[in-house]
């Protein structure tokens, strides 16, 4: 069993650890990880791992090191659970590792929850695994790349719409080329078409962002001043860049009606922004928002609503994303460091596998 251990205080220090496969206890299942997506979202899990508990899902037993969570597909290779058969495949939250032991509970024909003791009390959205049968399905790679991020996109739009967009007429998104920002732009376009969508991105990504057709206006970060400041606006910051956040607050001032913080993609500039004009930024935590919405509309309606918008997103992005495959421990580690260093163009979708 191999797993990539990351130094929690220096994320660029990563090394493989090899251990014997564990003996299964009653009710446990051994998953062999087939493939997973590597995105900026996974870097966010590592950056805020201590504060949000992301290191707790796949503990190493070493306080200085953690295993970065990812979303992907795995196959049951051993089972001591009567209701789970060897050969069955699942989709869900996985470690950067070759194998994972889970203790299925809350079993249904379509899913189960890992009842491992160390995962008790952690967010359900991360503990639930979808049962897929034995055959590969359609759009699996797109699902791994986009769906966890897209659900966050969907939930942000829902929160804003339920609040009547806080009286705003426009939405400004940082890291506009990121998958979560693109997803939010699409859902807002479909469900809140009266809201103007303004994307902020680096100069090298402007052409890509414009080509998606998901934004009404696309600006480089240094050109933020060209955005209309007199229009009531809400912001969603995916970048975690304190100087940029301060510039957004200064530009809109009292016309900034809500400031939402989501994730961290610019990890070298995530320090505090000091005193800001306008509203106090609020951190968005998707698992809490998901639980609230599920309680409002029920799990079936929630899933159906997300799936409808997700299908539209896949259609919108099919010509703008190329999927790359990276196999083997060396390629996986290199891909992780490349993503950590912000060297992955938004048009690249990275799928990692051990073989």
From TrEMBL:
Domain of life: Bacteria
Protein name, as recorded: DUF2855 family protein
Family annotation (Gene3D superfamilies): Medium-chain alcohol dehydrogenases, catalytic domain (3.90.180.10)
InterPro entries per the UniProt record, alphabetical: DUF2855 (IPR021276), GroES-like_sf (IPR011032)
């Amino acid at each position: 069993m191999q797993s990539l251990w990351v130094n929690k205080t220096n994320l660029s220090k990563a090394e493989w650890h090899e251990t014997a496969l564990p003996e299964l206890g009653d009710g446990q299942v051994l998953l062999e990880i087939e493939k997973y997506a590597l995105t900026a979202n996974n870097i966010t899990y590592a950056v805020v791992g201590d504060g949000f508990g992301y290191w707790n899902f796949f503990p190493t037993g070493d306080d200085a090191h953690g295993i970065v969570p990812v979303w992907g597909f795995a196959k049951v290779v051993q089972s001591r659970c009567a209701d789970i058969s060897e050969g069955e495949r699942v989709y869900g939250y996985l470690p950067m590792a070759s194998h994972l032991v889970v203790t299925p509970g809350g079993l249904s024909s379509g899913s189960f929850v890992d009842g491992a003791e160390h995962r008790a009390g952690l967010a359900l959205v991360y503990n639930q695994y979808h049962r897929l049968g034995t055959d590969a399905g359609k759009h699996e790679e797109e699902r791994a790349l986009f769906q966890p991020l897209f659900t966050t996109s969907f939930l942000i739009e829902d929160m804003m719409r339920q609040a009547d967009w806080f009286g705003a007429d426009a939405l400004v998104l940082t890291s506009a080329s990121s998958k979560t920002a693109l997803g939010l732009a699409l859902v807002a376009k479909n469900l809140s078409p009266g809201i103007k969508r303004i994307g902020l991105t680096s100069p090298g990504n402007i052409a890509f962002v414009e080509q998606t057709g998901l934004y009404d206006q696309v600006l480089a970060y240094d050109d933020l001043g060209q955005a209309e400041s007199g229009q009531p606006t809400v912001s969603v910051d995916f970048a975690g860049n304190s100087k940029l956040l301060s510039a957004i607050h200064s530009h809109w001032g009292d016309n900034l009606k809500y400031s939402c913080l989501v994730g961290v993609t610019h990890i070298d500039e995530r320090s505090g922004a000091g005193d800001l004009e306008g509203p106090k930024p609020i951190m968005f935590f998707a698992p809490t928002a998901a639980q609230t919405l599920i309680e409002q509309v029920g799990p079936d309606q929630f899933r159906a609503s997300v799936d409808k918008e997700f299908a539209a997103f896949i259609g919108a992005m099919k010509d703008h994303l190329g999927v790359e495959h990276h196999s083997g421990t060396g390629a996986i580690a290199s891909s992780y460091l490349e993503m950590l260093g912000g060297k992955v163009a938004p048009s690249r979708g990275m799928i990692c596998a051990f073989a």
